[in-house]
Write a structure and sequence with these properties.
Length: 222
């Protein structure tokens, strides 16, 4: 199962918009409920309202639509998405595709030291934890519906049942490590895999996830 792309064709997220979404969910719940979702902005290059985007993402998630990324974005859109922990994804699970580049960071930003983050308690469903400029380490379990996002690597000393996205600013050397793999979605530098594409023999195992030859690889540890 690959992610579903929701093409945004207007910047008006009114009642009619969400009624149409609800109608589609009613028509095909097995396709849309708990499905990983990417927002496609190719039709609205002028849209860059971060508050409206945050409201849209929140309302989609209350409908059990697992929004995790964006595609076909402008730099302002990508900046707004980044603030919500959404990653730029490449079209297709393992194939590269053109994508908008984030605005260049200032010289001061580029010189800032890594800011690694360590979480010493369980990450619950619905929680988003972001390490904007470094690695993210979680000592404990990550529940289904939780999201981990890091500029660098992600380490989970416990079962990983939510979504983990390393190298969120495009660092292709980013890796994900966990003690027990049950993840809903894994991504490194915009390439992603959903739970259905993970080999059965790797489920529940200690693994590392990394990019090799533009493919996202999952490999057992030990």
């Amino acid at each position: 199962m690959t992610a579903i792309a929701l093409r945004i064709e207007s910047d008006q997220f009114d009642d009619a918009f969400f009624e149409a979404i609800d109608a589609q969910i009613t028509k095909a719940p097995q396709l849309l409920l708990d499905a990983p979702l990417v927002l496609d902005f190719s039709k609205v290059p002028e849209f860059a309202d971060s508050a409206a985007l945050a409201d849209l993402v929140a309302k989609l998630r209350t409908r059990n639509m697992l929004v995790f990324g964006v595609q076909n974005t402008t730099s302002p859109q990508l900046e707004a998405a980044d603030g919500l922990g959404l990653i730029p994804v490449r079209i297709g699970r393992d194939g590269p595709a053109p994508e908008a580049k984030p605005a260049r960071k200032s010289k001061v930003d580029r010189l800032l030291p890594p800011d690694n983050k360590v979480i010493t308690k369980p990450v619950r469903s619905g929680q988003l934890v972001v390490a904007e400029r470094g690695d993210l380490t979680v000592i404990g379990p990550v529940s289904s519906g939780a999201e981990l996002v890091a500029a660098g690597n992600i380490h989970v000393y416990g079962p990983l049942r939510g979504r983990a996205m390393a190298g969120c600013h495009g660092d292709e050397t980013g890796r994900i490590f966990c003690r027990a793999l049950h993840a809903e979605l894994l991504a490194v530098a915009g390439l992603y895999r959903t739970s259905e594409s993970i080999e059965d023999e790797l489920r529940g195992q200690a693994v590392q996830i990394f990019l090799k030859d533009e493919r996202l690889c999952v490999e057992a540890l030990g």
